């Protein structure tokens, strides 16, 4: 059927029997290969036993009422892989974010940045000095952000468009100030300076005490 819609059918049985349930894909999508199809009874996943080019079936033995209930067949849009851990970079540097689609080829890729609750599409042709988008292969896309500032810190999304729908991957970018990596070093320097000052003052105090004696 149409992406995002479902079709329901009720089957009534009056005795124990064997039954085969089939899920068929519309003929106009027959060229699609390696689709992710899942059969479930309630929330329990059932492995489909028979598969033809555009059909996935399960065979059931209905022995009593415990085998009755709702069975569903779902065709999923492929998941897009982003990077789970935040990407950390510094002001003035360049950040590169990568999204991949394994085994499935998107028609097109789109990158978005988050501004509050709104997602804004990134167009590298309008901001060529800031964003560079590269589609290295049909299944991989890169977003390069140049001359990072604190305003670039936030959540980014890559969206892959398939014939049956769209799928998004989430990435997070953290932009740190150049002072951040220097803080531990400055703390050590401060401790050394304080220690040297204490030793120097102690030496002066000791010399004055010797002269007084």
TrEMBL record:
- Asked if the record carries the keyword Phosphoprotein, the reply is no
> What GO biological process terms does the UniProt entry carry, in alphabetical order?
axon guidance; dendrite self-avoidance; homophilic cell adhesion via plasma membrane adhesion molecules
Q: Please name the SUPFAM superfamilies in this protein's record.
A: Immunoglobulin (SSF48726)
What are the transmembrane regions? 185-205
What keyword terms does UniProt attach to this protein?
Answer: Immunoglobulin domain, Membrane, Transmembrane, Transmembrane helix
Q: Enumerate the Pfam families for this protein.
A: Ig_3, V-set_CD47
Which residue intervals define the domain Ig-like in the entry?
1-75, 78-177
Gene Ontology terms for molecular function: cell-cell adhesion mediator activity
Q: Which domain of life is it from?
A: Eukaryota
Q: Which InterPro entries match?
A: CD47_Vset, Ig-like_dom, Ig-like_dom_sf, Ig-like_fold, Ig_sub, Ig_sub2
> Does Zinc-finger count among this protein's keywords?
no
Cellular component aspect of the GO annotation: axon; plasma membrane
| Protein name per UniProt | EMB protein
Could you tell me the gene encoding this protein?
Emb
């Amino acid at each position: 059927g149409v992406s995002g819609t479902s079709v329901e059918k009720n089957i009534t049985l009056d005795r124990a029997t064997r039954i085969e349930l089939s899920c068929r894909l519309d003929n106009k999508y027959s060229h699609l290969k390696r689709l992710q199809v899942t059969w479930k009874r309630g929330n329990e996943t059932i492995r489909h036993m028979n598969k033809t080019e555009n059909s996935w079936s399960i065979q059931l033995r209905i022995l009593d009422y415990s085998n009755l209930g709702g069975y569903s067949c779902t065709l999923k849009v492929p998941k897009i892989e982003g990077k789970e851990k935040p990407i950390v970079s510094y002001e003035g540097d360049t950040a590169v974010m990568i999204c991949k689609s394994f085994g499935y080829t998107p028609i097109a890729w789109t990158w978005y940045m988050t501004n509050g609750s709104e997602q804004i599409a990134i167009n590298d042709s309008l901001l060529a000095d800031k964003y560079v988008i590269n589609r290295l292969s049909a299944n991989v896309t890169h977003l390069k952000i140049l001359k990072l500032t604190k305003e670039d810190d936030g959540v980014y999304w890559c969206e892959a468009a398939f014939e049956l729908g769209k799928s998004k991957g989430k990435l997070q970018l953290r932009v740190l100030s150049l002072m951040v990596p220097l803080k531990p070093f400055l703390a050590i320097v401060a401790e050394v300076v304080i220690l040297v000052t204490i030793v120097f003052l102690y030496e002066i105090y000791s010399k004055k005490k010797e002269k007084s004696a």
